[in-house]
Amino acid sequence: MDNYDTEQAGSSPWHLGPIIDALRTSREKTHNIRHQGRVRELPSRTVLRQVIEGISAALFPTHYGRPDLNDESIDYFVGDTLNVALDRLVEQVRRALRFNPELENVGEAELAERARAITHAFAASLPEIRALLVSDVQAALAGDPAASSVAEIMLCYPGTIAVLYHRLAHRLHRLGTPFLARLAADIAHTLTGIDIHPAAQIGASFFIDHGTGVVIGETAILGQRVRLYQAVTLGARRFPTDEHGALVKGAPRHPIVEDDVVIYAGATILGRITVGAGSTIGGNVWLTQSVAPGSNVTQAQMRGC
Hints:
It is built from 11 helices and 14 strands. The protein is of the alpha/beta class.
């Protein structure tokens, strides 16, 4: 035995020796589920969360950073925090790239070089991401009469945290690390109860009020100034299959929500349909057909269809 010798096994009241042997056989041979049967290095959920928390602190140092920052220390804090976060990120990107089918046979040196290039591009996009996030916070402040300050929204609104994670995850996805982006999205889901696929395209000034139970699918496209309430689903109506019965991956199957749409709590919008600009979708509506711009769709109307 490599990590649990015979003496240890013999001293255990659980008679672990045969169990350890059987688990090794399952892990290495009978039921080997490692990527390509060999990849052991996985991105770390713990490290990725540390990376995102560090980047969040660099983007909004007075909200997510340290309470003692001043004009003299804030830039140093941002630089130091980014250095640490990006150093950690490049290794997580490298590990995640092994799961890109087109990179399965790429050598370690090239993989490391790609990871560094992606991390550089990600870092360069942070001012743009911050501008989007500021628009999201301003939308929350303007759209929620209960919101008293930007600080309250930044620190107390789960929708703000979910959107922050999504903006970062979406950029990682666009830069070619879909596995790492998916992991970031799932961390946000765990923290907030809001499930946004990192490939979903979401415009500026996006606001999720309350938020628990919101689901936004992979191919959803949302315009600017869209507002969602809790338990809204932007999902797929059906899952196309190929001639062998396998699911077709990546096909457009989620809604397009145009600018200035409000979708109230519990609404379920399914399929590749379009919700026209300026529309309002009422609570608990089940919608599977496109609606024109400026529509006001209620549950009573849908029951009459």
